[in-house]
Amino acid sequence: GLNAEDLYREEIRPYRDGGGRLCEVTRLALDVEKCGKDALGSLFHLAVIFAYNIHGATDLFIEVNPRHAAFYRRKLGFKIVGHEKVCRRVDAPAVLLHQKLSYISEQIIRFGGLKLKQNKSFYSYFMPPWEEREMTEQIRAMLERTEYAAQGNPDSAVA
Fold first, then answer.
1. What's the whole-model pTM score?
2. Residue 62 belongs to what H/E stretch?
3. 5 close to 13: Cβ distance less than 8 angstroms
4. What H or E segment, with its residue span, contains residue 144?
5. CA-to-CA distance for 141 and 146, rounded, in angstroms?
6. C-alpha distances out from residue 48 to 66, 79, 122, 141, 149, Å
7. What is the DSSP letter of 51?
8. Chain segment 4-18, per-residue pLDDT in tens
9. Could you read off the pLDDT of 46-94 as tens digits, one per residue?
10. What does the alpha-carbon distance between residue 101 and residue 47 come to, in Å, rounded to a whole number?
11. Closest CA relative to residue 36, chosen from 91, 115, 111
12. How far apart are alpha carbons 159 and 140 in whole angstroms?
């Protein structure tokens, strides 16, 4: 299950019961003032690549402090699906947000890497689609090598 199901089991249940392959981003914290929007966009994009491209997840959930929810809603299109509760793991208020990974993928195709003055989408801080495809293939190849090595192949060299 997801960590978010500790607080939001009933809110998440319809997505699971509907056949969705669920995932969540947890403990995503970055000081954008120090690291910049590029770093946050890249980090979030890598999470999407692993969830959607590598593991075939369909739905992405995040629990965030309510004061951060507006960013995820406005800049990434997330929707609030769970009202404010106190998260015992961090002893702070939280709301549950959701977005279909297919929607996120569409936004990356549309805006990824397009850092134009008139482009206000945060998805412009994600990789361009061609770079995402290359990254996905590199990750798949690395995972295949790692899996091959884990099966005991004496000729494999995994660093």
1. 0.86
2. strand 59-64
3. no
4. helix 129-150
5. 9
6. 22, 17, 14, 17, 26
7. I
8. 999 999 999 999 999
9. 999 999 999 999 999 999 999 999 999 999 999 999 999 999 888 999 9
10. 11
11. 115
12. 16
